[in-house]
From TrEMBL, chains A, B:
Cofactor(s) this protein cannot do without: Zn(2+)
Top EC group: lyase
Organism: Tolypocladium capitatum
Cofactor binding note from Swiss-Prot or TrEMBL: Binds 1 zinc ion per subunit.
Catalytic activity, EC: 4.2.1.1
Name of a matching Pfam family: Pro_CA
Signal peptide: none
The reaction(s) this protein catalyses: hydrogencarbonate + H(+) = CO2 + H2O
Annotated protein name in UniProt: Carbonic anhydrase
Source superkingdom: Eukaryota
A GO MF term: zinc ion binding
């Protein structure tokens, strides 16, 4: 069974008992979360979010430089006034270099991506510090509270590393 | 109470009964979801995802052009072989133009972002078609099944619009 068929079956059940149709567009808790796309991290469960609470931006590594477009929209048009950045242990971004992946893409896909960075990192804690700092220094981001966390995929625990 | 303090309190509860520490890095269901950051959409709940199942990429609008870096990492390094794109009704991206937001940023933040696109759209269904098409045509994306959906924030229902 394809994932899409499974999604459609699961969604029928979800929609059958759905009672969130009254929620408004702006996030109720006025917060935006930037987190890694990692399959083991469910930001809603791990942070206690319900539908309607928060914008959740996710990408490989939870890199904030790629989240700037979304954060400007979140703050300027939808009123969020706090940011949380969540990276995690055992992240795939710790396992390769740009040179590695560029070489793999050239070999397997025949494409030259030497101009492109996949934004890997070699120090997890520093990656959170860097990603919070990028937001704090950006003239496009409001001067709001920004907290940086590491989520431990073995324990489910969140460790605050920058506030 | 700040959102970060609420996240930390909620996470203590989550971690106390956490039993997912055995999960591996590659997504178990070999699928990557690209969805909007909208607060009302919980992709895990709406699609029936558990921790460990799928990469979830989210940004303002669920725009795939901004997801390419993450998709290449997901496919080339972590073995995903299916993609689902999820946009939704009442999306914020339907409510503004680049000119509107550029003007607001200039006025409120004093910054010139005339070179930048915030990737809004005016036709929801077409936005899904466009975003699936970008992936299908990209030489950096494997020839895998890609399904495009619209999620209805009033009913919780997923409508397939491109497969």
């Amino acid at each position: 069974m394809s994932a899409s068929a499974e999604f459609e079956a699961a969604n029928e059940k979800y929609a059958a008992s759905f009672n969130k149709g009254h929620l408004q567009l702006p996030p109720g808790r006025k917060v935006v979360v930037v987190a890694c796309m990692d399959a083991r991290l469910d930001p809603a469960k791990a942070l206690g979010l319900n539908e309607g609470d928060a914008h959740v931006i996710r990408n490989a590594g939870g890199r904030t430089v790629e989240a700037l477009r979304s954060i400007v929209i979140s703050q300027q048009l939808l009123g969020t006034r706090e940011i949380a950045v969540v990276h995690h242990t055992d992240c795939g971004m710790l396992t390769f270099s740009d040179a590695d992946l560029r070489s793999k893409v050239r070999q397997d896909l025949g494409e030259d991506v030497d101009h492109f960075s996949f934004l890997p990192f070699s120090d997890l804690k520093q990656s959170v510090v860097d990603d919070v700092s990028i937001l704090k220094k950006s003239p496009l981001v409001l001067d709001v509270s920004i907290t940086g966390y590491i989520y431990d995929v073995k324990t489910g625990k969140l460790e605050k590393v920058y506030a």
